[in-house]
Each structure stands twice: as structure tokens, then as C-alpha cells.
Design a protein that fits this description.
The complex is a heterotrimer of chains A (about 260), B (about 325) and C (about 325).
Chain A (H helix, E strand, L loop, with lengths): L1 H10 L31 H37 L1 H16 L2 H20 L1 H15 L2 H16 L2 H9 L3 H37 L11 H8 L7 H33 L2
Helix pairs in contact in A: 1-2, 2-3, 2-5, 2-6, 2-8, 4-5, 6-8, 7-8, 8-9, 8-10, 9-10
Chain B lengths: L3 E14 L2 E14 L3 E5 L6 H8 L8 E10 L2 E2 L5 H7 L4 E4 L3 H4 L6 H12 L4 H14 L5 H4 L9 H13 L5 E5 L7 H18 L2 E6 L2 H7 L2 E6 L2 E7 H6 L4 H8 L6 H4 L42 E4 L2 E3 L5
Parallel strand pairs in B: 3-8, 3-9, 6-7, 7-8
Antiparallel strand pairs in B: 1-2, 1-4, 4-5, 9-10, 10-12, 11-12
Helix pairs in contact in B: 4-5, 4-7, 5-7, 7-8
Chain C lengths: L5 E12 L9 E13 L4 E5 L6 H8 L7 E6 L2 E2 L5 H8 L2 E4 L13 H11 L6 H14 L16 H13 L5 E5 L7 H18 L2 E6 L2 H7 L2 E6 L2 E7 H6 L4 H9 L50 E4 L2 E3 L6
Parallel strand pairs in C: 3-8, 3-9, 6-7, 7-8
Antiparallel strand pairs in C: 1-2, 1-4, 4-5, 9-10, 10-12, 11-12
Chain lengths: ~260, ~325, ~325
């Protein structure tokens, strides 16, 4: 699937926004293997393009969540005491915020501004990534913090201390590399979550603008024509489903691959 | 010769792993007679624990598998028995105690409950009676204030106490054989002494046979009547305890006994301990022929061709070595 | 008589006991309760005792891995108890530690070469990559491994080999004192012998001093010049090794020695049983810490006043009202 997304446009050169009214809402055919939408635009190329967008959003949001989460978790896990308490309070705060309404609110408030600054596509992209990632760092932070607590007491960390390693060195060289196992697995799950979140947002009309065919956006457009052109929604929805499943599968595989030797 | 209570013949237990077939137990013969204490000795990876767990079929059957052999318990082969039939044997006819009392006891139930559970599983008694038996057993294993302690949770007891509880659990239905897998390794030396004394006392009271698995030769010398030495999945020597220590025949046994630091004055003077060079072979691809050959000072070419059989040399003393 | 390499004076370490979510730490575990001893360059001080006696904590306090609550530590004539920062880092080059668990003491994600060489990087002891590699290979060879092992990861090594890596790591800074915290307890008997011999050889070659912490009395005897016996955070007896084993004077030492099983079935030892309540280190008994279990407790003084550690004969220190 990843291959298709990456190489797609090279293989299927039909432009995504070639409007062809004569071919409105056709079912799958040779010229258009996945059919067309209400403007006659080829669905396959839109799907491929959209897939790249969704993947990009997913990965970027995951990176935001992971970087923020690891940093906060590491600081909390190392410092303990009041810094830890403070950070965990922050974590709890974020966890108790109602995500979806806030998401909608933030997008509603900031979308126009961002669009003006960096242009519609990039603006929306940044906003969505920041918002999705910003609401998902907490579980990673907790994970990392828990790992830190258990790893601090391990003898090889004590050995590093005995050798004279500074706290920073202990954290970066010894604790972090051993803490990231579960984080990687959580990360892949986050990608899946982010894709779904983005799809939800776009489906609600708050994501990407109409000409950017992210999968959620495609669904948004397709929902009004379900009885006439079911293939439209089916392919988009199916793609989301397949993507999430394969990502979770990869996550499981990663967990197994990283586990036996490196488990402490 | 006393009738054999447990007779293991040619046992092979192999484990399927990603790296291949681990031949943990690869052709083991052992017998235990009624009321006798047999100690199975060897270092880590020799297969002694796997042997014990195989007797009671406590091995996870994938990935483990009893590839060959018979386990005759009072004349009846245990290998083909199914789970239901094994359950009747476990606890009632053969008891087992493990090395780590903390992990072998369930932390969320009081110890009395856990002992009573064994009783109820095998005998048709009500809760009251089962609990009475539990208290009785705790008294028997010298747990002070048994009536109170019966309600304690495992974490409230010390290591030695927990091991006593394990012994009580294993013996409450008066089994004829007790398998003790490294029962004192995790305990302090003074507590270890107490537990070993307790086992001897239980043995004289109940008359059961004991299969004591350990890597500590000192413990073996104190407790065992007969000893079987295992190396890399096979038995290499078997003899009455005194004969084994006085005149060990197999080079591995000799090396093992020589490398033990001792408290008695002779050896204590030396600063260097005798060692066995090299390390235990992998059980994935054991060396052909005698598995100890690569480390053996007396090895000859024939040793790597054929695995020597366990043969009786004199009286009860058996060795698996080409030298004899 | 030259200055001892290490001098520990009145070392105390207390750990707070958590009394619930909001409660202040009202109680303390008296892990180390006024311990004093000295170690000369090139000698081995054995520190024995059962679990909970405070020997591991003492070792870590000496190294400042745990901060002492009170007391003083002098190294090469300098008071190092409260060193910080750069000075503490310098101290780390003189005193190192080897751990008990060969599986937990090596970072599973670092190759052997990196583990051993880390100290070189921290203390900037190697100016070029070539120097670094040379030194690491040198260290590997010192402990009986070779250059092939540089890039392998801990899980590819056996327990004994990992322990060797741990030793190489400690040697990297060319320390003068190494605290060995149960370095062979987790190893098989034949491997124990190899490692003990290695430690003895290294001691001779580099004139290292060891603080050898263990619960296995026989092993300690083999490598120690002098031995201290700890009980409930206090030293109860301290003497040259042969003297302690041949002529133990403290009742606890006697009980400990009699409890060790000997690998000789014909020896019948008279075991001293310890009865009585096991004291706990949160509320240590008044007076002598051992009096609740002592078989010869005769003086009323025993339960009132703590016996001081006094010299009886040359070099033989004892804390007992009755015997000294």
C-alpha cells in the first residue's frame, strides 16, 4: 500500500482535477478504474493523492505526539518530585479536555489566519497536524515516564553512574534507547489514529478544502451521493479501513521484532 | 532391589523455537524407589528442571513435546495420559515445590486458602474441614502461630516461611513422591538449613520419596541417598551419594566437585579453584557423540563418534563414559 | 604501617519507609547502622551476611552511589564523603563496582566494546579512536575474551562472559578499589570458579583492593584476606579469613558457618539452630542486634546495651558482651 501511495502518480498520470462532466459518477471502468466523482474527476488518482496526504498527516501528527511525549515523559521520569507532579498535572489537564469539540473550535478559529499566512494547503496541514499531535502526546508521555521509572533502577544505569556519567548521559545513552521500544509501537498506532482523526475532521467539513482530496474529504463529498454512486464512498472508506488495519499489523510486527532480545 | 516407584526410560523432551529444535532432555533414564531421596544435579541448561516438569506434564506442550520415552509411575505410563488424568496425579500422588516461593504462591489469596484449595481439589471435604487441614499442615511445617498465619498473604511472610507454605501445600494430600526443584537456592544459608531439616523430618513422617533438583553439591551431600548427575540433557553418572563424592567416575562430575570452594580447611588454603574449561554446549546443535567431549581432558577420537551409554560399573554406580 | 586505602568510619544509612499516600516518612529502615572498617591496598575484605544485613548498601555507600546518612569515608587519606561534581568524577576513576546480575548490569542496546569503553569516553582517557579501540581490546583480553567480541551485544554472551564484560568495564579506569557485589552468585559453580580465579589474577597483576560482598561463605574464604560478618546493619565480627573460619567467636558467625552444607556426605556437622524472633531493621531490638536469636544469651546486658566492636586478639574484632 505504501508503495502504491509513493509511486502512484508516476504510474497513473491522469490529473486529479481534470473535470469531465460527461463522465459524472460513473462506476469503475477501464479509463477510470475506481470510477469518477460528481465532477467527473478520476477517483483513482484522487485516492492516490489523498492517500499521500493522509499518510503525511498521520506520520507528521505521530511525530509531533512522539517528540512532545518523549520529551515530557523523559523530563518527568528523570526529575521526579515537583517537576514530575507539575508535568503530570499538565498531562491530566490535556486528557480531561474534550477533544473533538476543542479540535473543531481551534480549527474554526485559526484556519483562516493560517491560510492567509502560509497558503491554504500548507496552512491546513500544519493546523491539523499540530492539533491532532497536540492532543495525543499524553499517552506517550505516560508510557515514557513509566519506562523511565523502571529503567532508572536497573543495574546498567547504576553502572553508568558509577563510571561517572552525568545525568544527561545516563538518560540519553542508556535510558532512552531502552525506553523507545514501546514508544515505537505506540507510535504506529498513533499514525492510524491520526489518519482516522483527519478523516473525521475532513468528513465534518473542517479539514482540507474541497480541491485537496484527502480520504476524509472524499468521504465528505461522497456522502451525499451514496445511493447514486456508492462506489465513491466505498472506495474511500475502504481505503481508510485498509490503511488503519495494515498499520496496526505493522505495529504488532514491530513489537514482536523489538521484544525478545531487547526486553529487559 | 526395592520396587521402582518412578521409572523414567529414554525420555526426550524437545522444544520448537525460532532458531530450531532445542533438545533439552535427550535420552534420560532415572529411577526412584519408594521412600528414597534421589538428587538430580547439574548446572543451568542441563535439563534437570525440564525433566521434573515433564514428569508432571507441566511443560507447555507447544512448543515443548515429549518426543520419546516412558514415565512409569507405579507401573503406569504417564506419557499418554490426558489432562484430566494428570490432574488426579498432581498434588495427590506426586507433589512439587519450586524455587521461587514468591512467584509460586498466588499473591491475592491468603496462604491458608491456597493450601485448602489443594485439599478440596482431591478430597471430598467441605471448606471448614479443608481449612482445618491447612492449619494442621502449617503446624506440621513449624509455622509459628499457625491459626493466625493461615489468613496471611504471601507478601506478609518471609522467604523461609513461604517455602514452608509451599511444602505444606505439596504434602497436604500425602503424596508418595515429592519433587523439589531448587527449593533452597533463593534462601539465606541459615534458612536453607532449616528447610532441609524440615524436608528430612517430613520424609520420616510421611515416608515419601524425594526427587531433589539442585546445582548445589553441598545440599546434595547433606540430603541425598542417591545422586544422578546431568549434563546437556543426559544423565552422565548415577551412584549412591557416598560413592559419588568419594570416587566420582565421570570427568564432568570430577571437575564439578573439584571446582567447589569449600569450608573445610584443606581446600581453603588454596587461592585458585580448579575449573572446567569452556562452557556448556548449545542444546540446539549438541556436539556429536559424548556431549562433554569438547571440554574433557580425557577425550579421545571415539568420544565424538558415539554417545556413551549409561552402564553399571560396580554395584549401583553407573557412568556414561568411554573410559569405563 | 601505611595509610589504608579505604577507611570507613561510623557509616550510617537510613531509608524512609513510606507510610501511606500522605503520611510523612515516620519510620526508617536502619540499613547500615554504624559500620567502620579499613581496607589496605591490594587486599580483599570479604563482607558476608544474609539478606537484609546491609552489605550491599554498605558497598554502594562507599562508592557514593547511595548517599550515606552519616559517617565518613576516607580514600587515600582524603575525606570523600561529601565530594561533588568534578571531584566526585575523579573519585569514580579510583573506585569501581561489579554487579551481581550479569543480565541486568549491561545495557542490552550497547555493544560490548561500547560498554567497556564508556568510561574512557566519559573521562576522556583516549585521545583518538585508535587509542580507544586498542585499550578496549586490551581490556577484553585481560578478562579472557577477545577482539571478536567487540561488536557483539550482551544477549549473545553467556552469563559468565557477561560478568567478564562487567569486570572489563570496571577495569577501564584503572581503579584502585573494586566493590564486588555478589559477583558470582548468579553463575553456575564451574563458571564461578573461573570468575573467582580471574578476579584473583587481576588483583595480583594490578594490585587491586576488593570489597567482596557475598553470602556464600565458601567463595568468600577463597578470595578474602580479611572477612567482616554483618547482621542487621552492624558488623558483629571482623578477622583475617583463616582466623574467622577456623576460630569464629561470635555466636552468629558460628551459626552461619555451621549452616553451610558441605559437599561431603560422610561429614556429620552439628548444626546450630537459630530459634527466636527474627528482628526487623525498622525497629531493631535494643542492645545487641542478635540477642533475640542468640543461643548463648546469658547476660541481661545483652538486651540493654549495644556491644562495641573490640579487638580481642591481633586483628580479630568482636562485638559481643559475653565473648570479648
Amino acid at each position: 500500500m505504501i508503495l502504491i501511495l509513493v509511486l502512484g502518480p508516476l504510474l497513473w498520470p491522469v490529473p486529479i482535477d481534470e473535470i469531465d462532466f460527461s463522465a459524472q459518477m460513473d462506476g469503475p471502468s477501464l479509463a477510470h478504474p475506481l470510477g469518477t466523482d460528481d465532477l467527473g474527476q478520476d477517483l483513482l488518482s484522487r485516492m492516490i493523492y489523498g492517500g499521500r496526504i493522509s499518510m503525511a498527516v498521520g506520520i507528521a501528527a505521530m511525530l509531533v505526539a512522539v517528540i512532545v511525549g518523549v520529551f515530557i515523559g523523559a523530563v518527568a521520569g528523570t526529575a521526579r518530585g515537583s517537576i514530575d507532579m507539575g508535568l503530570m498535572w499538565l498531562c491530566d489537564l490535556f486528557l480531561s479536555l474534550p477533544q473533538l469539540p476543542l479540535l473543531l473550535l481551534i480549527i474554526y478559529l485559526f484556519q483562516p489566519t493560517l491560510r492567509k499566512w502560509v497558503g491554504p494547503e500548507v496552512g491546513t496541514f500544519v493546523l491539523i497536524v499540530a492539533v491532532i499531535g497536540g492532543f495525543r502526546w499524553m499517552s506517550i508521555a505516560r508510557l515514557v515516564r513509566a519506562q523511565f521509572f523502571s529503567l532508572r533502577e536497573k543495574e546498567f544505569v547504576e553502572a553508568a553512574r558509577a563510571l561517572g556519567a552525568s545525568t544527561l548521559r545516563q538518560v540519553v545513552r542508556h535510558i532512552l534507547p531502552n525506553a523507545v521500544g514501546p514508544v515505537i509501537v505506540a507510535g504506529t498506532i498513533e499514525v492510524a489514529n491520526a489518519i482516522i482523526a483527519e478523516s473525521t475532521l475532513s468528513f465534518l467539513g473542517l479539514g482540507f478544502p474541497p480541491d485537496i482530496p484527502s480520504w476524509g474529504r472524499i468521504l465528505y463529498d461522497a456522502k451525499d451521493y451514496l445511493d447514486v454512486a456508492p462506489h465513491w464512498a466505498l472506495f474511500a472508506g475502504g481505503a481508510i479501513f485498509l490503511a488503519v488495519m495494515s498499520i496496526n499489523y505493522i505495529g504488532d510486527g514491530l513489537r514482536d521484532a523489538l521484544d525478545p532480545r531487547q526486553v529487559i | 532391589m526395592a520396587e521402582a516407584l518412578l521409572d523414567i526410560r529414554g525420555l526426550k523432551t524437545h522444544f520448537k523455537t525460532d532458531d530450531g529444535m532445542v533438545r533439552a532432555v535427550d535420552g534420560v533414564d532415572l529411577t526412584i524407589s519408594r521412600g528414597e531421596t534421589l538428587s538430580v544435579v547439574g548446572e543451568s541448561g542441563c535439563g534437570k528442571t525440564v525433566t521434573a516438569m515433564t514428569i508432571l506434564k507441566l511443560i507447555a506442550m507447544p512448543p515443548g513435546k515429549i518426543v520419546e520415552g516412558r514415565i512409569l509411575w507405579k507401573g503406569r505410563d504417564l506419557v499418554p495420559l490426558d489432562a484430566g488424568e494428570m490432574r488426579h496425579i498432581r498434588g495427590r500422588e506426586i507433589g512439587i515445590i519450586f524455587q521461587e516461593p514468591m512467584t509460586a504462591l498466588n499473591p491475592v489469596y491468603p496462604v491458608g486458602e491456597q493450601i485448602a484449595e489443594v485439599v478440596r481439589a482431591h478430597q471430598d471435604v467441605n471448606r471448614r474441614e479443608a481449612m482445618d487441614r491447612a492449619v494442621e499442615m502449617l503446624r506440621l511445617v513449624h509455622v509459628p502461630a499457625a491459626e493466625r498465619r493461615v489468613r496471611d498473604y504471601p507478601h506478609q511472610l518471609s522467604g523461609g516461611m513461604r517455602q514452608r507454605v509451599m511444602i505444606a501445600m505439596a504434602l497436604v494430600c500425602s503424596p508418595e513422591l515429592l519433587i523439589a526443584d531448587e527449593p533452597t537456592t533463593a534462601l539465606d544459608v541459615t534458612v536453607q538449613a532449616q528447610i532441609l531439616d524440615l524436608l528430612q523430618e517430613m520424609k520420616s513422617r510421611f515416608g515419601m520419596a524425594i526427587m531433589l533438583i539442585t546445582h548445589a553439591m553441598g545440599v546434595v551431600a547433606e540430603v541425598a541417598q542417591r545422586v544422578a548427575v546431568m549434563y546437556a540433557g543426559r544423565v552422565v553418572e548415577e551412584a549412591p551419594a557416598e560413592a559419588l563424592f568419594a570416587r566420582p567416575l565421570h570427568p564432568y562430575t570430577q571437575g564439578l566437585i573439584r571446582s567447589i570452594p569449600r569450608l573445610d580447611s584443606e581446600n581453603g588454603k588454596k587461592r585458585r579453584l580448579d575449573t572446567i574449561t569452556g562452557s556448556v554446549p548449545s542444546l540446539l546443535n549438541p556436539p556429536p557423540g559424548c556431549r562433554f567431549a569438547p571440554r574433557c581432558a580425557f577425550a579421545i577420537a571415539a568420544c565424538t563418534r558415539e554417545g556413551p551409554e549409561l552402564r553399571t560399573i560396580e554395584g549401583d554406580h553407573k557412568v556414561a563414559c568411554i573410559l569405563y | 604501617m601505611s595509610e589504608p586505602l579505604l577507611r570507613v568510619r561510623n557509616l550510617v544509612k537510613n531509608f524512609p519507609v513510606r507510610g501511606g499516600v500522605f503520611a510523612e516518612a515516620s519510620e526508617v529502615v536502619h540499613a547500615v547502622d554504624d559500620v567502620s572498617f579499613e581496607i589496605d591496598a591490594g587486599e580483599t575484605m570479604g563482607l558476608v551476611g544474609e539478606s537484609g544485613c546491609g552489605k550491599s548498601t554498605t558497598g554502594r555507600c562507599v562508592l557514593r552511589l547511595i548517599e550515606p546518612t552519616a559517617g565518613e569515608i576516607w580514600f587515600e587519606g582524603r575525606n570523600v564523603t561529601r565530594l561533588k561534581g568534578k571531584a566526585l568524577s575523579m573519585l569514580r576513576r579510583n573506585m569501581q563496582i561489579i554487579f551481581q546480575d550479569p543480565y541486568a548490569s549491561l545495557n542490552p542496546r550497547m555493544a560490548a566494546g561500547a560498554i567497556i569503553g564508556e568510561a574512557l569516553t566519559i573521562h576522556k582517557l583516549a585521545k583518538t579512536r585508535a587509542q580507544f579501540d586498542d585499550r578496549v581490546v586490551e581490556l577484553l583480553q585481560l578478562v579472557g575474551l577477545n577482539a571478536d567480541h567487540l561488536r557483539r551485544y550482551p544477549h549473545e554472551f553467556s552469563g559468565g562472559q557477561r560478568q567478564r564484560i562487567g569486570i572489563a568495564r570496571a577495569l577501564a579506569v584503572s581503579p584502585r578499589l573494586i566493590v564486588c557485589d555478589e559477583p558470582v552468585s548468579a553463575l553456575d559453580v564451574s563458571i564461578q570458579a573461573q570468575i573467582v580465579n580471574l578476579l584473583a589474577d587481576l588483583q595480583e597483576e594490578f594490585r587491586l583492593a576488593y570489597l567482596f560482598i557475598a553470602h556464600d561463605l565458601a567463595v568468600v574464604r577463597h578470595i578474602s584476606t580479611r572477612v567482616a560478618v554483618m547482621y542487621l546493619g552492624r558488623i558483629v565480627e571482623l578477622a583475617p579469613a583463616e582466623e574467622l573460619y577456623g576460630n569464629p567467636r561470635h555466636p552468629y558467625t558460628e551459626a552461619l558457618l555451621s549452616a553451610v552444607p558441605t559437599p561431603d556426605p560422610t561429614a556429620r556437622r552439628q548444626r546450630i539452630r537459630l530459634e527466636g524472633e527474627i528482628p526487623n531493621s525498622i525497629h531493631p531490638p535494643p542492645g545487641c542486634c542478635f540477642h533475640t536469636q542468640c543461643p548463648i544469651r546469658e547476660l541481661p546486658l545483652c538486651s540493654v546495651e549495644r556491644p562495641p566492636l573490640k579487638q580481642t586478639t591481633q586483628g580479630h574484632w568482636l562485638a559481643c558482651h559475653l565473648r570479648s
